[in-house]
Amino acid sequence: MATVGRALLILSLVVAGYGIFASLYGVRRGRPEWVVSGRRAVYAIAALCTGAFAILEIAFLRSDFTFATVASHSSTTTPAFYKAAAAWSSQEGSLMLWLWLLSMWSSLVLYLTRKQLRRVAPYATAVLLGFAAFFAALLVFLETPFGLSAGIVAEGNGLNPLLRHPSMMIHPPMLYSGYTLFAIPFAFAIGALVTRQVGAADWIRSTRRFALAAWFFLGIGILLGARWSYSELGWGGYWAWDPVENASLLPWLTGTAFIHSIMIQEKRGMLKIWNISLVLATGILSILGTFLVRSGVLDSIHAFGASTLGIPFVIFIGILIAASIGLVVWRREALRSENRLDSLLSREAIFLMNNLVLVAMAFVVFWGTFWPLIAEALTGSRRALGPPWFDRYLVPLTLVLVLLSGIGPVIAWRKATASNARRNFALPAVAALVLGAALVALGVGDRPAALAMFVCGAFVVVSVGQEFWRGIGVRRAMTGERAPGALVSLVARNRRRYGGYLVHVGMAVLFVGVAASTAFNDARDVRMSPGQSTKVGGYVFTYVKPTSRITATKDGSLEKISFGSVVQVRQDGKLVTTLRPERSYFESRDTSLGPVGRFFEGEATSEIGLKAGMRRDLWAAMTPDKAALAPQIAQGDKVFGAVSGKLPPKVEAGLLAEALRGLARRYVADPPVATFRLITSPLVTWIWLGAIIVFLGGLIAMWPGERDALRRRAQARYAARVAQDLGRAPRGATTVAAGSSEARS
Amino acid sequence: MQPARKRRIRLVAALSAAVMLAVALVYTSISASSEAVTPSDLQTAQAGVSYQLTGKVQHGSVRTTSDGVRFRVRDRDGTASVPVSYTGAVPDPFRQGREVIVTVRKKGATFVGERNSLVTKCPSKFTEDATKSQQKS
Questions:
Q1: pLDDT of A174-194, one tens digit each?
Q2: Which residues does chain B have within 8 Å of residue A175's beta carbon, measured at their own beta carbons?
Q3: Phi-psi region of B62 (alpha: psi -120 to 50; beta: other; left: phi over 0)
Q4: What's the predicted TM-score (pTM) here?
Q5: Domain housing B119
Q6: Do residues B19 and B64 share a domain?
């Protein structure tokens, strides 16, 4: 099957090459049948990649160790759920996922626009096929997922225990969906530039939903990564300004800017160069993100890297940047604004400021991430920047961004009058200032950045809430509906607008959570024996007793040994909660280690103890001192080393299990001191709650409404009538009537 | 004021602001960053200066202390190593042979790790030498 998989990838590469030629030849020579053939090449690649990806997944699910990647990333004892996810835990598997998602999304957009954008789409098809060809070439020549194992492999290495988390199933596909979806606006922007259609709203309208979907999926991916980090990695944080995290944030920031500024182009024909630059930058940053993750060019906590991919990626990104800049310069005449900014007190101006802030944030993140390389080029030595540097710039920028997200939705287009400003901002400003004064009275004033974020957050929530309230009032006056019904119909009739408002509220809630949990968290690393207590953030954590357990896999073999603890948390003498953090040790596959010691030298994971709440999270992780068990482990290794191979395997496994159970009992009976990380952190739940609101809003904004379809049909009918009146629709009038928008231009 | 002149003034103001910001960014980047080094680079390290040390945790060097852990970090592809003393809980993936990044300052003969600065690379490949499969494609 590996041969079939590889053949499918080679075929994908060949078809991509053909499709690029067919699309470009068709559009340059006016041969629509070639253009159609080019588009079908994308569908064919989607089918081929689906086949290749299915072969890889089946190999993982069947534990087919003839596939080298299955042998190194899965095992027969890996649970089926994680076997499926293990496919993208490898470099080659994740590149395969990238290509498959790209081919699927590309097929979808080209299918949906098959009767529109007849001049732009062939170039966009060629660009998308160029992306596909690049990744297919990587998979064929450099990192094949269909390589064969040398010799017979009885058992694989298994999926890294750190990756055995439900997020593993969703987090990478979400991130990759975001990256690949951003390639779509990029491709259509290139097509629009080549065909001088850049001022037309058609390509923007057709790809806007894909840009929103990219933003949506990438955002979910980022948040899931943060949540995974918080709940699994045993350090208690959710963001570390690590290069791989930053790589995903960069296209999200520029994509967010684009989603906003594109509205100004649609409404007022302004900011065309800015918008096209943002689309192109976002597409390139998505590839750059993949490059950063996959090349290992920067030191990161995520060691996915393989340097063999660095050079092809640099060349590819270089081509994309050169082509993008060249096209924008070449088409600068077509990118002139149709209008000018009338006033700084207008929605356009606020959107522009929001864009500047988002781009500044992206620039700071980019600069900080690539600083080791920049510094090396400037000074000859690599230097690295830590979280305080990022915070110095990004905290004030985020404050401004949140504030603008409360002003933008309610300020008038073109020019806001003083009465308009008073009407819209009096209540939110008063509410925010009252909250600020109350918080100062409560002693929050010593954390000015957090206080400012609370005030800005309140401003946004009240501002947007007021807008909803007014909308509901108008609907009730018009239709006599009850308030809940009026709210539903209000949102349903203008999903993009009210979905966007909800996103703003969600972001405000999320950043309030970030500000509170950063400024007011209390963390302590402390060593305790049973019975000892320590105070963290007004709570008393008591290490009550140790625990231990051994977990077996379905086939009865030992999976892990866990040493844990029961920790009671009290406030003012009252029991608040009981946490049960533990640390699990997985068997190493290194046969040079002793049979018992092997269980303590493999991967180790923390199962944290967490009591999450709307007000405060209580968080605990623990690391037992294994050194205290070293004599017993050494003794066990000596005994089992002596009898190894002399006993039947089943008997030996049974004895080993009994020895480990003995160690586990000993740990409980005579517990060594353990190191605890204990954290009390306020409003962390608000981050996840805010994220849910953001994505709910995003979903509402993306969801196609009935009015979209009605509008499209009406526009198509009008276009067909105009075309017929002008006598320019001798053939394909029915096709035009079905939706061509270019007939109008 | 003439529109052309107004535009020129705006452009100059915007460019001046951008240049000032860029200078601030470069200045703070240089002053706030730590030199990224390997253990062999640290043989001539100065006391009190902050370095971002990258390397592998030397086999058999990890010792738990009353407030943290002591270990040696060696070059990825070499033999030079330096002792590191780190206070606090270590990340989950930390163990001998793992690649780590830690911000350190020289104190006597030891390099003291900055609190919360220790990161251990999270391997996506769970490969072990003994059973590592080789591709023959």
A1: 999 999 999 999 999 999 999
A2: none
A3: beta
A4: 0.87
A5: 35-124
A6: no
